[in-house]
């Protein structure tokens, strides 16, 4: 079973009311129900399968992000503080450790991958207490890409896997927002990507989403709301929110680097900065942001 995310596609709802009065509707609290299944906890190895060509700098941005999730010495707000929200979910905290990295720069399965290809790639290397992440380059088309920006799932042998694609050349308005103008909704100016790479900085947002989902709902019976076939999970339940005051088409108030003008909300290792999406906090039943 795989879970899909389109992080930048926002639904805009217009309410028609009589001009003489307005009605305030109190929204019910957002609740992700726990379905009594296993969560990933303890030391979890993240193996990276680089499918297609990524530059060394692009790979370092993503590896640094994963390492940042356990780097408690970073200035606040930090990527590690963001990840600690997952420890509030039943089952305890998961510490993500970068494991094996496999380079497939010769496109062994071609430049168009179907879902079975993603599962096959995600099953190598298969091991307990791990998440195998398939990262596809900007010139690789994936079945359903742009309708979804990333997925996670598990095999019959209960190995967790995930996929995230580089959307720079295919659908940045859907999968790299807010670093690119959205394909739908208000056409607000895009934010400046913190690492200077719209495609890879967009991948960080989607990678953060699938990793949080893989830890809190790895086998389709953890935390989620809605149908199991299309669940709202830890981060996908908070789509489009990056800072306080967010609303459809506006990511919220975030920090801006005075030198580069880049937008971010989290510090990481090696001086890195990232823009991370809001995550549902089970203690407050709300989408929690770093700023």
UniProtKB/TrEMBL annotation:
The keyword Secreted applies. Keywords: Apoplast, Secreted, Signal. Residues 1-22 form the signal peptide. InterPro entries: EXORDIUM-like. It is found in: Secreted, Extracellular space, Apoplast. Belongs to the EXORDIUM family. This is Protein EXORDIUM-like. It comes from Actinidia chinensis var. chinensis (Chinese soft-hair kiwi).
